[in-house]
Design goal:
691 residues, alpha/beta, 7-stranded mixed beta sheet, 20 helices, 32 strands, 22% strand, globular
Length: 691
């Protein structure tokens, strides 16, 4: 009999936030829910009551909540959650700090003098801010932004490393009702312009640079270049990372030569950049000095007021600009943090991310649950593969957020964290970005920690959260995501649009939820929005993942359905092949596509080999045997080829569709979305792939 890899102890179940939530709804709503399956069913059948309970249990701060929790609940899209509410996102994240009165910790909440963010910049920089200090800096920057003319609906863009100033900037913008949108500073000029030109920000926040693998990387040269094409930006706020204060004399000279800015749409306060002038440059520390701090006047705004603009990866054209509302983002993250990841007041939460990935937004919301944010910027393997576990031990990390790729890398390097680190405080490890293979689960329990809730999670930028994820009071089964997300009517449809179990199909969501996009930017009729999610199954969200709901009611993600292989009419998820290939020590990673061939499709596998390994006939035979034994004969590639590198998006996802286009001689529409676009050349015009 197959046993789960992990089960929570009775003591852990008793103190879980999910258990407290079940007690809360049973008491307040006179229910008799006795576990996750019953809670999940209720969260779908009574969505208004469920999200209202999340609001109350999460202690949402609002000027008005309103009596109605869900209007037009049968419309998708079109449902409205909390249509009468007025709230401010930043106020909810800054609840544990006040400029004047530190909160009491008697209720278990964080104190104003507790850490809010803790920042490690590789092995060089160590900084921390208390909740009170965070509040004070947000207050000062919010006053500065308001003096620049920023108000509700304006866009503030960021080109920042994952440093505290990104959190400060987002909260300052949100406190005023402005909309925040960020890119990672490793983006090229075209990638930044493709994103920010569409949304027309008036203010840009950036740093003077960042560090990667121990080296200093300048950012201001690229900022100067893309500002020449972003003509709505009138103010540039620069944080010091490489030097404090940042050296801005040359940067100011370059910006003075840029084209004049057009007239703003509305009048701006006196003291802002002169009409038609080049962008005005401000050192962030100077803005702190120029404003007194104090209580923040949080703008009280509708539930769906635009909080974030996030971007699709852009590998098939200009990135989609996805607008997320303040209330939906807040509720979704309170649900996922507290109920699905068991984040408690005083916890210390980490996710390895950049400011260009939605997991940064997800991490930032941890403040609303009273958690400390552990921020790391740089290479996660520098100066050693154990550096993130050094952070975990040093800062008493409770949640370690990472990717399947990182776990695979540790496995390939034969890193044994259990023998070098204590990790006494760590309760949860989450993995996302790509499916976590069964061998990845094995590695975590054998080489990281045994008493650990391993929650593989999956969702996306589109919903600024997860469709499926953790259940801290349930078991972990090898190779499976624990559960469908609370409040998320997740299903799997076959080719006929019928619900199936223990069978692969399309991942869908059949009922509305609060963190659906408010809109796409510059899509006033909602045409592109509906086409992206609702064309395949009218009234049902189609997410584009190939998935299976198991007999445990867990979930397996097999990869993107638009990259699904279809040899002989049989649909095969790419992750099914990766799981077999990447368990071989000779293979660092693989990428598989379907190539049109002889009026059918054949499977082509590209592999990046470990150092010193050659792709000879013996290794090809072993790869095929591994795939045949671990999956099926249908999964065995027709062609296996070696490549020196595999292209990835900025968030680390391999780009099967871009490679497929290159192999078929089709143009790749937006190479700027890739972290290493030069790798595509390795796949072009391969003689082995010519008919």
């Amino acid at each position: 009999m197959i046993e789960p890899l992990w089960e929570p102890s009775d003591e852990r179940i008793a103190v879980a936030r999910l258990t407290a939530f079940i007690d809360h709804v049973n008491t307040e709503l006179d229910l008799a829910i006795d576990g996750y399956p019953a809670l999940y069913d209720w969260s779908i059948s009574e969505r208004g009551d469920f999200w209202g309970a999340v609001w109350d249990f999460g202690g949402v701060i609002a000027e008005i909540r309103g009596e109605v929790t869900l209007a037009d609940g049968d419309k998708m899209p079109g449902a409205r959650f909390f249509p009468d509410a007025r709230l401010n996102f930043a106020e909810n994240l800054l609840r544990n700090a006040s400029a004047l009165e530190p909160p009491s910790a008697s209720d278990g909440s964080a104190r104003a003098d507790d850490d809010a963010p803790v920042f490690w910049g590789e092995d060089t920089i160590r900084r921390r801010l208390s909740h009170g200090e965070l509040y004070d800096r947000v207050s000062r920057l919010a006053q500065a932004l308001e003096a620049m003319g920023v108000g509700p609906g304006d866009r503030v863009a960021a080109f920042l490393p994952n440093m505290p100033e990104a959190i400060i900037g987002m909260l300052a913008a949100a406190s005023l009702g402005a909309t925040w949108s960020s890119c990672s500073p490793d983006f090229g000029v075209e990638g930044v312009v493709d994103r920010f030109e569409q949304i027309e920000p008036s203010v840009l926040m950036c740093a003077d640079g960042y560090r990667f693998k121990g080296k200093k990387v300048d950012s201001l040269d690229r900022v100067a270049r893309f500002l020449g094409r972003l003509l709505t930006i009138r103010h540039v706020v620069v944080a010091g990372y490489l030097s404090e204060p940042p050296e801005l004399a040359d940067f100011r000279k370059r910006l003075a030569l840029l084209p004049n800015r057009p007239e703003p749409e509305r009048a701006t306060p006196s003291g802002t950049a002169p009409s038609g002038a080049a962008p005005q440059v401000h050192a962030l520390d100077d803005l702190y000095e120029a404003h007194p701090g104090g209580d923040i006047e949080f703008a009280q705004l509708p539930f769906d007021h635009p909080l974030y603009i996030l971007f699709s990866s852009g590998t098939t054209g200009k990135p989609k600009c996805i607008v997320h509302g303040a209330g939906g983002t807040l509720l979704k993250h309170l649900n996922e943090h507290q109920l699905m990841c068991d984040v408690r007041p005083g916890d210390r939460v980490f996710y390895f991310t950049t400011c260009g990935w939605m997991m940064w937004n997800w991490l930032a919301s941890g403040l609303a649950s009273g958690a400390t944010l552990l921020l790391y910027d740089g290479n996660p393997m520098y100066p050693s593969p154990e550096v993130l576990f050094d952070l975990a031990d040093a800062e008493n990390m409770t949640l370690f957020g990472t990717s399947a790729k990182f776990i695979d890398a540790l496995d390939n390097l034969e890193v044994d964290v259990r023998s070098t680190h204590d990790l006494w405080s760590l309760r949860t490890l989450t993995s996302t970005g790509s499916p976590l293979a069964p061998e990845g689960f094995d590695f975590v329990y054998e080489h990281i920690k045994r008493d650990l809730c391993v929650s593989s999670i999956s969702g996306g930028t589109d919903i600024v959260g997860c469709f499926v994820g953790g259940n801290p009071i349930g078991p972990v089964w090898r190779g499976e995501i624990q559960a469908r997300g609370l409040g998320m009517a997740v299903d799997v449809f076959d080719g006929n649009g019928l619900s199936v179990r223990s069978e692969k199909g399309e991942l869908v969501c059949t009922k509305p939820f609060p963190s659906m996009p408010v809109t796409f930017w510059n899509d006033p009729q909602g045409t592109r929005y509906r086409a992206a999610y609702f064309e395949r199954y009218p009234g049902v969200w189609w997410h584009g993942d190939f998935a299976e709901i198991t007999h445990h009611d867990g979930v397996i993600i097999y990869g993107r359905s638009d990259a699904t292989l279809n040899p002989g009419g049989v649909r095969i998820g790419t992750a099914e092949i990766y799981r077999q290939v990447e368990r071989l020590p000779q293979i660092e990673e693989g990428l598989v596509i379907g190539q049109e061939w002889d009026n059918d499709v054949r499977i082509v596998l590209f592999v990046r080999l470990a150092e010193g390994v050659a792709l000879d006939e013996d290794l090809i035979a072993r790869i095929k045997q591994e795939i045949r034994a671990g999956s099926s004969p249908r999964h065995v590639p027709d062609v296996i080829l070696e490549v020196a590198d595999i292209p990835r998006t900025k968030s680390g996802k391999i780009t099967e569709l871009a490679v497929r286009d290159v192999v078929h001689g089709q143009p790749v529409k937006n190479k700027e979305a890739l972290a290493n676009p030069e790798a595509l050349e390795l796949f072009a015009d391969r003689p082995e792939l010519r008919e």
